[in-house]
Amino acid sequence: MLMSTPQTSTPTSTSAIVLFAHGSRDPLWHQPMLKVAARIQDIAPQSLVRCAYLELTTPNLPTTVQELAAAGVRQVRIVPMFLGVGRHAREDLPQLVAQLRVDHPHLNIELQAAVGEDERMVYLLADMAVGPTR
Length: 134
Prior knowledge:
Layout: E1 15-21, H1 31-43, E2 48-53, H2 61-70, E3 75-80, H3 87-103, E4 108-111, H4 119-130
Parallel strand pairs: 1-2, 1-3, 3-4
């Protein structure tokens, strides 16, 4: 199932942010990812923003990186949109990124830590759980 990603930035951007998630057959599952992508595009209009998925959804990460390379991108930041760091984030993704670096040696590919490992996310989730009555 192909899910659209906001693509409002100029195609001559030299940097890109790729939000990477597991994927799902449920089309509603993708809505939060697309909202995050749209917000990034609002605050970083100089970057291309794309979503890519491990399975069950297209596009996958190799296809996305290939398209970005063909568009002239030189730097790609991959942001794993995982709260927990299981096998996919710990093993599969680093192997996939290693192969992408071999396949695209002209690209600077940065693999960011999973969003769930960021202390800001921990505090945000805790604040959301506590609610506005603290």
